[in-house]
Write a structure and sequence with these properties.
By secondary structure, the protein is mostly helical. The chain has 3 helices and no strands.
Length: 56
């Protein structure tokens, strides 16, 4: 498990891509989604690991 705030940018990007399949919005909206995912991941590290495994 990774300490809070230490999730690699590529890993977060892969999760965002997995969730936002075929998303055509702007990069600002995508960044807001990434920040929301990081906040959630800090509160739910075990679920983050499961989500990361499903999105690989």
């Amino acid at each position: 498990m990774v300490e809070d705030g230490e999730r690699p940018e590529e890993e977060v990007g892969a999760i965002v891509d997995c969730i936002l399949v075929n998303y055509q919005g702007d990069s600002e909206s995508r960044d807001r989604v990434a920040q929301a995912i990081l906040a959630w991941a800090a509160e739910h590290p075990d679920e983050w690991d499961e989500l990361r495994a499903r999105c690989q």
